[in-house]
Write a structure and sequence with these properties.
The protein is an alpha+beta fold. It contains two helices and six strands. Bound molecules: zinc ion.
């Protein structure tokens, strides 16, 4: 489950932010997960809860913001919604569609005290 290492990465971002901005507790983490990022939001929540135990983010709520996938079709040259990498273009049925949006996971915001 690669979500475990991703959750550790999120915790590191939170801890770095805590050092920089001098807060001591995190109440919630807003995490953007792209539809094409190959991250399972439920698994991410589970791993996050496990990883933050005993840290400044213990008990923090993980708010997952799902970002829709988007791609550029090389056949019809349109930007189209893309549910999965290597799917054909929903507009013309052609290939290839290069993923241009919803490919990443990132910490968007922290609610701290
Ligand atoms: Zn197309």
């Amino acid at each position: 489950m690669h979500e475990m290492s991703l959750a550790i990465g999120v915790l590191q971002i939170v801890e770095d932010a805590a050092r920089e901005r001098h807060f001591r507790r995190v109440r919630s983490v807003f995490l953007e997960i792209g539809e094409l990022a190959a991250v399972e939001p439920e698994a991410m929540r589970f791993c996050f809860d496990a990883v933050v135990r005993g840290t400044l983010a213990e008990g923090a709520v993980l708010n997952v913001i799902e970002v829709a996938g988007e791609g550029l079709c090389f056949n019809c040259n349109r930007t189209v919604p893309l549910a999965a990498r290597y799917d054909p273009c929903p507009a013309c049925g052609g290939y290839p569609v290069q993923a241009t949006g919803g490919t990443e996971m990132r910490v968007k915001e922290l609610e701290v005290e």
